[in-house]
UniProtKB/TrEMBL annotation:
Domain HTH luxR-type: 300-357
Protein name as annotated: Helix-turn-helix transcriptional regulator
InterPro entries linked: Sig_transdc_resp-reg_C-effctor (IPR016032), Tscrpt_reg_LuxR_C (IPR000792), WH-like_DNA-bd_sf (IPR036388)
SUPFAM superfamilies: C-terminal effector domain of the bipartite response regulators
């Protein structure tokens, strides 16, 4: 692999961590060293802590051995005073001013026990108290410091390494924000889904999955919404593209089976841009039963699980008599549980209990 191909391969590894092994193998081969490892380090009190380590093939095989000393606080390099002061730099064990003579002696002995020789590296600061590094170690019997040829290559590598480090940070931040957003949308009781103009579903939350499972006029087949009639599909398509406003009504077998659909966000298709043909939809149907978590009801109202389970079934439309038969208990027992739940919730009637639970969970 020539240098240009190597630099390009680094960019290709940003979104696919498994490709880093091949990239680091190529860097190791290019410099003739024993190991090449890409790490993200953060300051934690008096230590530098590796948050992740991508390794070449040999370092991967020796990971447990290396982590026992080389990637631990026992290594003098992992002390907080070794955080780079500039935005980026190239350094080595033998010339680093942050390392004392005692540090260097500890390094020589500790690295030798790990099957490694002296190290040299390039650093890039990516934020307050955090940086990335590619650390390279010579073979255990090679005591040379970084050479001029090594340094020339690292200077060529540096601008690409800095850019890749920033891309990795941005990618991780975007992924974290997306994870939080998806967790929020999956926890809400509102049915939400994102689809394209061909009804292909790119994301949906648990509430939308439950709703679609209950309705007769729509189904999810191979990640695509399928409507039972052409008329229904045409109604939804008109709403997706904005021809009939932002809402539509898709009838079912019974009046209560109707599907109400509202467009929350519509991104117009644009062939010059990626990801611009998605529509975010909210779905609801008055005839479907609400999903109530009995454990949440118990926590919120101080009920026992038996009382909360009864309350959840009442919210879903079941009568006390039907609940007792469903659970295989006496109707009198169910009514005693209801009386206790009413008292703890501070209401007198079953309808008030159902309304209070629904209002509280809706606000949450």
């Amino acid at each position: 692999m020539n240098d240009n191909d190597l630099f390009a391969a680094m960019y290709g590894a940003v979104g696919e961590e498994s490709r880093w092994t091949g990239v680091l193998n190529a860097i190791k081969l290019r410099l003739g060293v024993a190991s090449a490892v890409f790490q993200r380090l953060v300051v934690d009190r008096d230590e530098l802590v590796p948050m992740f380590s991508m390794r070449d093939s040999w370092s991967t095989q020796e990971a447990a051995r290396h982590d026992a000393w080389a990637n631990s606080p026992l290594n003098p390099r992992f002390r907080s005073h070794n955080v780079p002061h500039g935005p980026y730099g190239i350094e080595s064990d033998q010339r680093s001013l942050a390392l004392t003579a005692q540090d260097r002696e500890e390094l020589r002995n500790g690295l030798a026990n790990c099957g490694l020789g002296p190290g040299f590296w390039l650093d890039c600061r990516t934020g307050a108290g955090e940086h990335t590094t590619i650390i390279l170690h010579r073979h255990v019997d090679d005591t040379r410091d970084i050479t001029q040829a090594d340094e020339e290559f690292l200077h060529q590598l540096m601008p690409h390494f800095r850019q890749v480090s920033q891309l990795l940070k941005d990618f991780a931040e975007q992924r974290a924000r997306l994870s939080v957003a998806e967790a929020f949308m999956d926890s809400t009781s509102f049915a939400l889904l994102a689809c394209d103009l061909s009804f292909g579903v790119h994301w949906m939350n648990a509430a939308a999955e439950r709703l679609i499972d209950q309705l007769p006029q729509v189904a999810l087949v191979s990640d695509t919404l399928r409507f039972r009639t052409c008329e229904s599909a045409a109604l939804v398509e008109a709403a997706l593209i904005g021809e009939s406003g932002d809402v539509c009504r898709v009838p079912g077998d019974e009046p209560a089976d109707v599907l109400h659909l509202r467009v929350l966000r519509r991104d117009a298709a644009d062939k010059r841009r990626w990801g611009r043909n998605l529509v975010l939809l909210a779905l609801c149907s008055p005839g479907t039963l609400p999903y109530i978590d009995a454990a949440e009801v118990a926590d919120l109202f101080g009920l026992t699980m038996a009382e909360a389970t009864l309350t959840a079934h009442l919210v879903s439309g079941m009568t006390v008599k039907d609940y007792a038969a469903h659970r295989g208990i006496a109707e009198g027992t169910a009514r005693m549980q209801l009386k206790s739940a009413l008292g703890k919730a501070g209401v007198r009637r079953q309808a008030d209990l159902v309304r209070q639970v629904c209002q509280s969970l809706a606000r949450l």
